[in-house]
User: What shape does this take?
Amino acid sequence: MRRIRLTSGLGFYGDNWHPVLAAIERGEVDYVCSDHLAELTLAILQKDRTKDPAAGYARDLIPMLTHLWPAASARGVKFVFNAGGLNPHGAAEALQKLFAEKQWRARIAVVTGDDVLQHIDRFRVSGEALQHMESGASIEAIREQLIFANAYLGAQPIAQALAQGADIVITGRVADAALFLGPLLHEFAWDANDWSRIAQGVVAGHCLECSGQGSGGNFGAADVWQRIPDLAHIGFPIADVGSDGEVVLCKSPGSGGSINFHTVRQQLLYEVHDPKAYVTPDVVLDMSELELKDLGNDRVRVSGAIGSAAPDQLKIVAGYRNGWMGHIVIGFCWPDALKKAHAAIDTISLMMQEQGIHPDELCTEFLGRNAFLGPHATVMQDDALNEIWLRMAIRTTNKKHADAFPRLFPWLALSGPPFMGGFHGIPVASQLIGVWPTRVSRRLVEEQVSIDVFETF
Assistant: This one.
């Protein structure tokens, strides 16, 4: 039975690519599939594109390939990246420039069609509601503020790009697991309706899409995470996949981290709302019958995925201008650290009233006490706290108010409650981008998808 080995590239924009080299050199992999786009990364790339129209892609693509390509090309390893972000052709042009400078040869394919901003009105005329997936709100409220809108494409365009001989495939927004499923569809020529095999391919991708998290990084089990070995040299997970869909997870020999029953099941459930109906563009995956068999020596077999027909709609993540933020962080120490912070809040709140700063939203939190858990935080003995970092932030449609807010704080250093020293924050307002998740008929999106192929010399 023929087998293909895939490994994780990055798990997010800014991740570490050094473990990928170990997989290339020692893991006998055929493909590196790199996920640069977390849910909010497009908002970051939009800010880049606002400053420079040639930007909008994940810039770590270039140093990553500079580091990895010599070893990969010598072994015939191919790459699939969603680093194109909001500007896949810009990413390809930057890559072509790099390869020209280095005199490296490759065939680069660019998948586009996920950018649907210019089609929003056409979608609505076609009867698409484009309501907010969670609140049900009408998109009409933010239509004029939209600055990007990208659909989650599936794996088929990636498979088609590879069929055209691509060594490197660059996409914009695709579903995370599709990065890994695409090479499997290409290599094994699975039937488009072979839902069980496609479901197994999505399982493989889902286990790999978060880089080191799939091999024991960020492992949450109490009193167990300390025993994950050598995180400094963690090995990103590798999926050894057979043409029948069998998946065996492993990592490169001699690397750190751990592949075992517990680390794999944690990653399987990551960001999954309904394990019996995990909706992707390529298949609806039922994980309820999955069997994980720990084979020892950092190897786990995953089998039993159940798949049903792909959905008729694709998810869209859209971004819109959502006002301005002003924020500041200020520290207070024992004794009475929390009381000092509350006194500062009272003082700043009064000053905001007197200066006519009335934000749409005010966030107040105490770092180290409740910033992560909010009202669910365990009540602590406040008098025993050694230090408190108070963070206050406002959201407002008035940029002048957002600019003014951080300037309310510095005088507290000498004229407020006893102060520990040091302010942290952005001295000028930061524009906020809201996220609008919605769905649209896949037919309306997929008819716009295209693949362009370039040769480097």
Notes: The first helix runs from residue 18 to 26. DSSP finds 13 helices and 19 strands in the chain. The chain has two domains: 3-114+152-311, 319-435.
